[in-house]
Design brief:
By secondary structure, the chain is of the alpha+beta class. The protein is built from five helices and twelve strands. Helix 3 links the parallel strand 9 and strand 10.
Length: 208
């Protein structure tokens, strides 16, 4: 997926693994779940989260065992995203990591371009896609059922706008990086605009 976001700063991911030394104590037997967690993080960053800027730091837990304690981390492997504890004591679940990073990334970045978050079985999503296609506007279709990253990003971006207690439906649409709403709101924009101008890089329904 192309990076369609303007990021202000990379998301900080910190892993404390079972390793290191403190005083007379040292880790002599490596932790298999720590090794699995490193593999999960690296693979998730290169696949599910490709294009999302992340700063990954790995530290030895025994050498700095007191540092994650204020965050609630005491059992390696300990994973913190933007200073918030997301996992400890077990091999990391990649879905948990993806959601935490996407939530942080949404707070640190703004969408650019045109995005339609939807699902294949939604007739309103189909109608919205037809509106955009008929208007000659290029857009990024984000399937929230098939792609966890798209679901997490849609929720992270729309909840602060509509309120955390408001149920989220699809489609959710952004035009030129600005939130539009659903298919009905999009149709109002289409009806209010002139015919598409092929000489522009975007459709003439785009915001001035």
């Amino acid at each position: 997926m192309p990076d369609m976001q303007n990021s202000r700063s990379p998301v900080s991911v910190l892993l404390y693994k079972w390793a290191g030394a403190w005083g007379p104590f040292s880790v002599k037997i490596p932790c298999g779940e720590c090794s699995l967690t490193v593999d999960v993080i690296n693979d998730t960053l290169s696949t599910d989260l490709a294009g999302v800027p992340v700063n990954l730091e790995i530290r030895d837990w025994l050498t700095e065992w007191w540092r994650p304690l204020p965050k609630g981390g005491w059992h390696a492997p300990i994973v913190l995203v933007e200073g918030r504890l997301v996992s400890q004591g077990n091999a990391l679940n990649r879905g948990v990591l993806t959601e935490a990073i996407i939530n942080a990334h949404a707070r640190n970045s703004e969408l650019s371009g045109n995005h339609l978050f939807g699902k294949a079985t939604c007739p309103h999503c189909v109608r919205a896609k037809e509106h955009l296609q008929n208007a000659g506007m290029a857009f990024e279709y984000r399937d929230v059922v098939k792609n966890p990253r798209d679901l997490y990003e849609m929720l992270a971006r729309v909840k602060p706008i509509i309120g955390h207690k408001t149920p989220v439906t699809v489609p959710q649409i952004w035009i030129d990086g600005r939130y539009v709403g659903g298919a009905d709101q999009l149709s109002e924009i289409v009806d209010a605009r002139v015919e598409p101008n092929p000489d522009r890089g975007r459709c003439s329904m785009s915001a001035a």
